[in-house]
Fold:
Amino acid sequence: MKRITSILAATTLLAGPALAQLELEKDELTFGFIKLTDMAPLAVAYEQGYFDDEGLFVTLEAQANWKVLLDGVIDGQLDGAHMLAGQPLAATIGYGTEAHIITPFSMDLNGNGITVSNQIWEEMKPNIPHDAEGKPVHPISASALKPVVEKYTDEGKPFNMGMVFPVSTHNYELRYWLAAGGLEPGYYSPENITGQIGADVLLSVTPPPQMPATMEAGTIYGYCVGEPWNQQAVFKGIGVPVITDYELWKNNPEKVFGINADFAEQYPNTTIAVTKALIRAAMWLDENDNANREEAVKILSQPEYVGADYDVIANSMTGTFEYEKGDKREVPDFNVFFRYNATYPFYSDAIWYLTQMRRWGQIAEPKTDAWYDETAKSVYKPAIYLEAARLLVDEGLANEADFPWDSDGYKAPTPSEDIIDGIAYDGKAPNAYLDSLPIGLKGDQRVVGTEIQG
Structure:
């Protein structure tokens, strides 16, 4: 647990750059996080004194799992949290726990990987092309896994893989990768929330820090998770990451900072102050071509944050990614915290998550394009973000050119060459996008019992 001292905060009240403009409605705050590399903006905002500068007394508390974290924000034990992007959306539409959660700040791009056990890797390798040096050619398609899954199925063995939460990026990225390789990852229905209806690969929930041990025990054959838990498998010699989400979808959205809508309404200045501190942390993490990353790794390796070894976190956080032992490659954008407008909460990012919920049956009924737009706008709050950014620019703490002032909230469509299945994504046309995906619900289709109808 981290706590800002009263003396330091009191000094900030006299000297902080923002406090002449913002009168805080609440200055003692508790934020939750899961032990993952991408909680970094929270840790950096604390350690670099950016919360202090806003006059905020902040406590950061690690949470046991994503459900406990979400419940903490809903019931007010936490004032906000590092969240799966799907959590505010799912809560707001009433999938699982119902509550209106919003986000004024996206925490990062990329940062995940899919890892398989050594045994599965050996069985996949004959199906993977290799370069002149004998190294696997990346990105690796799940089509290389398909014959392995079919073999296990023929032998009567269920093929189990892990993801971190039903509405996690990791669930949707693992499903995306599997489907792009011709494997059915299974469907949800209102009556059956396992997500395993009609599945070739059975996906189940495992908390991120437990992924390597669960795979080592043989309970799962692989998993999709954020760092440092893919690199941990490499260091332990128990598994091989086969693809990063940067290779799956270049610069895809990842975590968000989530707060209760009532909190933002009751404490608008506090919400802006928190957003300012997080933007400054994100800027620090990416500035000067990631020059601060080694210092960031030292912060994250502390037990109260991620608590993994420095070398494990640095393996991906400092611009490289190691697949097999010794096969370390340059991936400078594996973790992106600020560049490419990473922190701006784009409606199109929200809509991608909603399309994946619909694709796999978590949203059971068809929805109009207008519904996707309205739902995204009820959760993602770029106006709050830009208000915080404007104050930072006015205070000389940020550059005007670094923010998308004139955005309508939608990114330009992601081109087909940036996504592993070669299918472009346009957030303004969600139903057309769903129709373009060969595996998954589309149009009026529904899951009824164990069948897709419509």
Q: What stands out?
A: The first strand starts at residue 2 and ends at 3. The mean pLDDT is 94. Residues 167 and 338 are 24 Å apart (CA to CA).
